[in-house]
Structures are given as C-alpha cells and as structure tokens.
UniProtKB/TrEMBL annotation:
It is a multi-pass membrane protein. Involved in the import of queuosine (Q) precursors, required for Q precursor salvage. It comes from the Bacteria. It comes from Paenarthrobacter aromaticivorans. It is found in: Cell membrane. Keywords: Cell membrane, Membrane, Transmembrane, Transmembrane helix, Transport. HAMAP family: Q_prec_transport. The lineage of its organism: Bacteria, Bacillati, Actinomycetota, Actinomycetes, Micrococcales. This is Probable queuosine precursor transporter. Belongs to the vitamin uptake transporter (VUT/ECF) (TC 2.A.88) family. Q precursor transporter subfamily. It holds the Pfam family Vut_1. The chain crosses the membrane at residues 21-41, 79-101, 129-149, 169-189, 195-221. Its main location: membrane.
C-alpha cells in the first residue's frame, strides 16, 4: 500500500489463532475447571509456612493462569473469555452442590454429628471463596488475556516469553488483590499486617511460578500450534 506522501508502507499482518474444533481446547478447559474447583476448596484453609501466610489452594491456582495463557495465545481473547466464564459457572454449580450436601439431613448419632460438623467446616466457607475467585479471576484473567493478545497484535509470533510475563504481572496483581480482599476473613486473617502479607506473598508466588514455567508454557504453546490444523487460519 502507499502512504499519502507517496512512500510505500506494509500493513501489519493480523495475529494468527486457531479455531476450537480440535480436542485440545476441550481438554484444557476441563483441566482449568477442575483446578479452579479444587483451588476454591483448598483456599478455605489458611496455611502458615514460617513467616508466609497463604491458603491451601496456593499450589494449584497458578496452573489455571498458565492454561489461560496457552488458550489466549493459541485461540485468542474471545475463546479464552468463554473458557473463563465456563470454568466459573462450573465452580458456582459445585458451590451450590456443597450447599445442598450440607443442608441434607444426616445421621444423628455421634459419628454422624461429627461428620456433619467436619463437612460444614470444610465446605461451608466455599461459597464466599467462590465469590472471591469469581470476581478476582474474571477480572485478572480477562486483563491477562487481553494484554497478551494485544501484545501479540504488535509482535506477531515473536517474543512469546515477553507476552507471557508482561500479561501475568498485571493479571496476577489484580486477581490477588481482589481475591484476598474478599477471602481474607474466611480463612482467619484479621489485621492489616496479615492481609498485606497474604496479598504480597500470593502475588509474588503466583507470578514467580508463572515466570518459572514460562519455558514450559512456551513449549506447550509451540506443541499445540503445530498440531492445531486451523492455527494461522483464524485472525483476531
């Protein structure tokens, strides 16, 4: 094409993506949903590791973001957003199931009463955790996916590592701040010092794990791109 001054310019090619017709997207979506549901259960338990304050879902949750990165890079923002909404719809469904399980009448002997108390203690706080995760993950993962795809529009297939790291920093911070603000009271955090520790440790840990796994994420993305028959056919 020719610019108004008469000089020749080249238009930037649209970023390449794949359609969701192959099995890979469904597998990743299923794993993401399971990870989120298990993370919501684990997050109801406060965990103290020396000076570090976190929750029982800390070792699972970063996997959901890594999967989100892969889906955003391979399938684009709209598809990644559908995966986020679907995963949390399933998390809400799981939470409703917990509520029904707790409400159902149980045995009234000593064992049954103890079992009911244990179930209420383990699953009772989960609805608030799900709310925290819903708001946090929808905001954080959406921002993460949007930034990654916008960066891809500028760089094309180059510097995937920079897209993964740059989007993760912003997305994880938003996610961690929102989640901790809502979930802190459920797991027993009662003062600002503990809260600040919870937010800082959560953000640094999640971001650190994503950074650590960037080489693996890059390899997985490359592997799926090569095996997705439609990759490069779908544009943003």
């Amino acid at each position: 094409m020719t610019s108004p001054s008469g000089s020749s310019t080249l238009s930037k090619p649209a970023p390449r993506f794949a359609s969701i017709g192959s099995p890979y997207f469904g597998i990743m979506l299923a794993i993401m949903a399971v990870v989120l549901i298990l993370s919501n259960i684990g997050a109801s338990k406060g965990v103290v590791l020396g000076p570090i304050i976190t929750d029982g879902g800390f070792f699972l949750f970063p996997l959901a973001y890594i999967l989100g990165d892969v889906m955003s890079e391979v399938y684009g923002f709209k598809v990644a957003r559908k995966a986020i909404v679907t995963s949390f719809a399933l998390s809400v469904f799981a939470s409703l199931c917990y509520w029904v399980i707790i409400a159902l009448p149980g045995f009234d002997d000593e064992y049954g009463t103890a079992k009911q108390a244990a179930i209420e203690g383990a699953l009772g706080p989960v609805p608030q955790i799900v709310l925290a995760s819903l708001l946090a993950f929808l905001a954080g993962q959406t921002i993460n996916s949007w930034i990654l795809v916008k960066m891809k529009a500028r760089t094309g297939e180059k510097t995937l590592w920079a897209r993964l790291m740059g989007s993760s920093v912003v997305g994880e911070f938003v996610d961690t701040l929102i989640f901790c603000s809502i979930a802190a009271s459920v797991i027993g955090i009662t003062d600002f010092g503990m809260f600040a520790n919870y937010v800082l440790v959560g953000f640094l840990y999640k971001t650190g794990v994503e950074f650590l796994f960037v080489p693996v994420t890059v390899m997985v993305v490359g592997w799926i791109k090569k095996r997705e028959p439609s990759y490069g056919v779908v544009a943003a």
